[in-house]
Amino acid sequence: MAEKGLKKATLQLEGMSCASCAQTIEKALNKAKGVKQAQVNFAAEKAYVEFDPAEVDEEKLAEVVRSTGYDVKDEREKITLKIGGMTCASCSAAVEKSLNKAEGVYTASVNIATEKGTVEYDPTVITRQDFNQIVANAGYEVIGVEGDESTEAEEDNDLKKVKEAKRKMWGTWAFTIPIIIWMIPDMVFGIAWPNQMIYDLGMVILAIPPLFLFGRKTFVTAYRAVSHGGANMDVLIAIGTGAAFITGPAVFFTPIANYAGVAGMIMAFHLTGRYIEETAKGRASQAIKKLLELGAKTATVIVDGEEKEIPIEDVQPGDVMLIRPGEKIPTDGEIIEGKTTVDESMATGESMPVERTVEDEVIGATVNQNGLIKVKATRVGKDTFLSQVIKMVEEAQGTKVPIQEFADRITGIFVPAVLIIAAATFILWLVFPEELRSVGIWAQSFLPWVNPHLGVFTLAIFATIAVLVIACPCALGLATPTALMVGSGIGAENGVLIRKGEAIQTMKDVHTIVFDKTGTITKGKPEVTDLVTANGTSEEELLQLAASVEAGSEHPLGVAIVNGAKDRDLQIKEIEDFGAVTGKGVTAKIDGKEVLVGSRRLMEEAGIDTAGQESEMVRLEEEAKTAMLVASKDKLLGIVAVADALKEDSVNAIRELHKLGLQSAMITGDNERTAKAIAREVGIDHVVAEVLPDGKVDEIMKLQDKFGIIAMVGDGINDAPALTQANVGIAIGTGTDIAIESSDITLVRGDLSAVITAVKLSRATFRKIKQNLFWAFIYNSVAIPFAILGLLHPVIAEISMATSSISVVTNANLLRRVDVQPSYESK
Asked: Residue 645 — φ and ψ, nearest 5°?
């Protein structure tokens, strides 16, 4: 068994070939900071490590292994647990702490707003069933796993919770309103109607249903938390209302004021706050609900030449679906017959319909507008675009923003601290009654509920109850997750998928956004623009040779040359010995003769003189065209120039980024002259040219050294290492494939207006998070001292507490009013 505070991890090793390898790894692990003990089993290819999680984690242990020249197999899986029984931020903190302490858990993050926990774990060490037990031991329960139940069941559960909260609220008020009416003569005129005994007895009887019938769950949850060694918001409410209620029966035996009615009122406001909070949280998560509602329920498939309507769950890859005008496209697929326009606004946020024809991809849940089409299903169920979006939004809501860490630390100790403060308040009133009473005498002229002439014991209880019910960890706990929920939802509606919460905070500090040129600033569909011949070669021969060699390449420029030859009906010749020289060009043999197509460097290395065409090269490059030299038999045959047109909104987007205070940079494999010509046309501030594919990471690191925080926009596949190196990686999704692991933010649509939306949305979301946290800290800093001094009536204290939580959630929902669209109209 691991010592207290230590964790155990089992690492699956790769690359060992002998016992010496195992010894090397074991020695390195045992030297690592925070490692108590490490043993490596060569036969099992595993390392068993006992470590201090405060100093080192599984990721760092894996880095230690990799630094020795070996590797760690990533066995981790991710699961999202639906957790029941949590009522405040202290509950989520307790569950999160328990999960993070478990062996085999890499990270665990519990979100009180969504009532879900996202756990990354090693399935070889810990199982799903273990999570059920861990959560149960913390005093809560796992009520389901994300993806295991139907959407409808989850929606019904959310609706059920709101209805239940509403029922309890009105049930409590049915008894609390009579309490308030009955208390008015006593509070205003000092008359207990019809007499003191019946009044006191009535207060006790009327307070029983609000506390022990409708508020029963508060006491049960409080007991469960305490019995498992924890404390949450319900503990404070239970002690506060419990102490107030006890004064009711006690009034018959001791000289004390009767606060039983006040207990009922506190519970009524507490349950009202819970109801409003549930409804507000529902609004915060409505983006996912909207997305879930978008999916088609049925599909019309063609079976043996006949149309057949089937549930969407029964559609399989390869099925041919018939979609009429106005119908939703049931699932992701490829058009095999017909032509139409499709409303893809649900996916991209772009209101203008797009034309789609045979061989084009279409996205499930988008709307076919005006053509009859047949679509072959390519992705179904959890693999569809819509399912990926929902999964990514939920995962983003399960992540945390760094600024939240401080709030989490406070939340973890908040309730025990308040209990100590409440106990100290009670003692202070008993030890220094006159000093504290003098504050009440000063305040009674403008605070009508303050009565400093009550008995010392009554005043002590009054102040203690106020302290217990006014303290609010919920506002702190809800401050970040609710804003993150709303922000990620708005992003999804606008084609911006925030995958990691920390990106929202990092984006506010970004100095420069780096764009990969091809497919980001440009359309990524280059075309042949110029043919410059030399040494008696004709244009047709030049293009034919270049295209024949490039036919073996998959590079966009090569594809452009091949397409250019096909457009002119030129025959593509057979080639031999094809070779690609990274970042320089391609070579191949045609009819036994070697042909080279590429840059100056390729020609120089082959000893071919290019001086005669240098002026033409310069001219083409200054026109922002990529000029490729073609040579054979040691002589230059000419130049093929290719240009990649700018995206319609590139210039406007870069201009708006400048208005937002951001610098821009472009990274490209083009030569410097061509790159600078494109940069001038677009308005890019910094150019990094002639970068080989494997050199992008180094260039990003240089830009980070020069400018600080960097965001990069690029292709999620080819630019993956560079996106990972950047402080914020922004990947442009390709078609229906948006599950790009290397990115922090994924853009569904390819135009740069989505980058503007991502920047504005990240800034607005983080601003709401800061506002919420500031309000929560200020509220608790001011409210608790007032309660200690006896200046807050317990009922007013409870109203203030409920209001603070509601205001935090409401402020997060105000994000929907923020304009995150670019100021120009994207095309």
From this structure: -65, 145
